[in-house]
TrEMBL record:
Entry protein name: Uncharacterized protein
Protein source organism: Nicotiana attenuata
PANTHER family in alphabetical order: ENDONUCLEASE_EXONUCLEASE_PHOSPHATASE, RNASE H DOMAIN-CONTAINING PROTEIN
Length: 124
């Protein structure tokens, strides 16, 4: 989800597509001021418009359930399992323990709860 203020744009459809989002709620610019837009990917979020005016966009946002397929085989650090992000390991400088390197997503995410205490190095 991306929120932009003071865009000074009358229509945000083209910008939404260029930034690879497929949905948006907008309040167009008035002359050379204002312009507000919320952009998101429909497969990730449900956004229900409540009210839109020159002061802001009020919306209800619900995340869709997120499932890591084969999470018992997906490496927490070495596999790129988060949408549009590289593997977590590429974001960490320095060594990791062997135990950390062998952790799967299922080891860290159990029964819908993230337990980062099992890791010696916390992800960025």
């Amino acid at each position: 989800m991306l929120v932009l203020l003071e865009t000074k744009m009358a229509d945000h459809k083209k910008l939404t597509e260029e930034l690879q989002f497929d949905m948006h709620i907008q309040f167009p610019a008035i002359g050379h001021s204002v312009g507000i837009v919320i952009m998101w990917r429909e497969n990730s979020l449900q956004v229900d418009e409540v009210a839109v005016n020159s002061h802001g966009i009020h919306a209800m946002v619900k995340a869709k359930r997120w499932i890591v397929h084969s999470e018992n085989r997906v490496s927490f650090f070495n596999d790129p399992w988060i949408n549009n992000l590289p593997a977590i390991r590429s974001l960490i400088h320095g060594p990791l323990t062997r135990e950390d390197m062998s952790k799967t997503v299922a080891n860290v995410h159990q029964n819908g709860i993230w337990d980062l205490s099992t890791l010696s190095h916390h992800p960025p």
